[in-house]
Amino acid sequence: MKKNIRFLGAFIVLLTISFSKFMVGKYGEIARVIIMVAALSISILGLVGIIYKKKYLAALGALSMVIPLVVMTIGIYFDNMYLDALGFGLLFVLIPIMIKIISKYNKNL
């Protein structure tokens, strides 16, 4: 099962990269902002669904992934490479923190 999930994840990444290239080629640079806003909207809806199901630890982990996406979307909108890089760097800071928090919480159960 895990091999299928890894393959699916790699396939979706390649599909979204090609979709992004196609949209930018067809509609110009504004397509990047539209794609990021769509991804942000889907992420926030997923976060609301997780909170609705009262999975608060999972919601905290999802929120830590949505925050860098918000920063990157604002950076792309304002065409600010530094803000975009800050959002990307936040991913590498927040992922280890969330791994430690979630593993600590699961040990206490």
* SS-derived structural category: mainly alpha
Number of strands: 0
The biggest sheet, with number of strands, parallel, antiparallel or mixed sense and barrel status, is: none
Beta fraction: under 5%
Mean pLDDT across every amino acid position: 88
Label the overall shape: globular
Task: Give the ordered list of helices and strands.
Answer: HHHH
Task: Determine Rg (CA atoms, Å).
Answer: 16 Å
Oligomer: single chain
- Measured as a percent range, the helix fraction is over 70%
Low-confidence stretches: none
Spatial gap, N to C terminus:
26 Å
Please characterize this protein's 3D structure.
This protein is an all-alpha fold and 109 residues long. It has a domain at 33-108. Helices cover 91% and strands 0% of the residues. It contains 4 helices and no strands. It has helices at residues 2-27, 30-52, 56-77, 81-108. α1 (2-27) packs antiparallel against α2 (30-52) and α2 packs antiparallel against α3 (56-77). The protein is globular and about 50 Å long.
Relevant terms:
109 residues, mainly alpha, 4 helices
Helices and strands in order:
Layout: H1 2-27, H2 30-52, H3 56-77, H4 81-108
Helix pairs in contact: 1-2, 2-3, 3-4
Summarize the entry for a quick read.
91% of the residues lie in helices and 0% in strands.
